[in-house]
Design brief:
By secondary structure, the chain is of the alpha/beta class. The protein is built from ten helices and ten strands. It has helices spanning 46-53, 76-83, 101-112, 117-130, 147-158, 177-194, 205-211, 229-233, 238-245, 247-256; strands spanning 6-17, 20-31, 35-40, 61-66, 69-70, 86-89, 165-169, 197-201, 214-219, 222-227. The structure holds adenosine-5'-triphosphate. GO terms for molecular function: ATP binding.
Length: 262
């Protein structure tokens, strides 16, 4: 695989908050079309990594590039151009509470394009359906939706501009197991049918098994391993062994590999 197939490249990333060093020479590549799961103990800097890559935070040193552009240091034109090629979904969906779901999904479309109202409405409905919501959700406010529907509404908005990369921060957190499984299935279908690259921060072992092509583990300020899940699960590191070898890890493995052939 050549460097040209890497849509995200992080090199020598350093992130410090006062005396706390969160990232200490972190390197990571994300390949076009893959679903990369990013895991690590609480506070290891998964969210800070995501925020740095999408340009919401300028790193202390090192670089994080998306399509070859460092979003925390580029000019406004580059930010707009690359910004329209990525979609973001944060934990709570980050919807505007005073707007309906339809209006929320329309926000990025209006910012980017000057569309007649009828076309805008059609596009909004398309995105809402793509995220697995009924048409009726378009006229509801976020507070009138269940947690799972809010996530889908956030996803619909993240998909508004037909992004090439989707960044998701713990999308199944707070969902019941059935809702989480459905969300995983939706993610897998969307990624395959739209050719999306997905950068997925998660604690959810079932999600890792169900949707990720590769998994990157953060520990000690670095990515200590990024590989296929089966190889990562046997990686010799205390946190990795605790994570995959604990009761939840074993249960998730059994659910995907009931014959124990893994
Ligand atoms: N704006 C900030 N100011 C100061 N410290 C911060 C800031 N943002 C993050 N941190 C610190 O950086 C560390 C990493 O935070 P981050 O949210 O990335 O962890 P995480 O791996 O996503 O954790 P979790 O799995 O619990 O969500 C934490 O110790 C956090 O307190």
């Amino acid at each position: 695989m050549s460097a040209a197939d890497h849509v995200i490249e992080v090199r020598g990333l350093l992130n410090r908050f006062g005396s706390q060093t969160v990232h200490d020479g972190l390197d990571l590549d994300v390949r076009r079309g893959e679903i990369l799961g990013v895991i690590g103990g609480s506070g290891t800097g998964k969210s800070v990594l995501l925020r740095t890559i999408v340009g919401l935070r300028e790193p202390t040193a090192g670089s994080a590039k998306v399509f070859g552009v460092d979003l925390s240091r580029c000019n406004d034109g580059e930010r707009r151009e690359v910004g329209s090629r990525i979609g973001l979904l944060f934990q709570e969906g980050a919807l505007f509470s005073s707007l309906t779901v339809g209006e929320n999904v329309a926000v990025p479309l209006k910012e980017r394009h000057n569309l007649p109202a009828s076309l805008l409405d059609k596009l909004v409905l398309l995105k809402i359906r793509l995220a697995g919501l009924p048409d009726s959700a378009a006229h509801k406010y976020p507070s009138q939706l269940s947690g799972g529907m809010r996530k889908r509404a956030g996803l619909a908005r993240a998909l508004a501009l037909d992004p090439e990369i989707l960044f998701l921060d713990e999308p199944t957190a707070g969902l019941d197991p059935i809702g989480a499984t459905r969300f995983d299935e939706l993610l897998r279908t969307l990624s395959r049918s739209l050719g999306l690259t997905v950068f997925l921060v998660t604690h959810d072992l079932d999600t890792l098994h169900a949707v990720c092509d590769r998994v990157a583990v953060l520990a000690g300020g670095k990515v200590i391993v990024s590989d296929r899940l089966d190889r990562v699960a046997s990686f010799n590191h205390p946190w990795v062994q605790d994570y995959f070898g604990g009761p939840r890890g074993r249960a998730a493995l059994r659910a995907t590999d009931p014959q124990g052939e893994h």
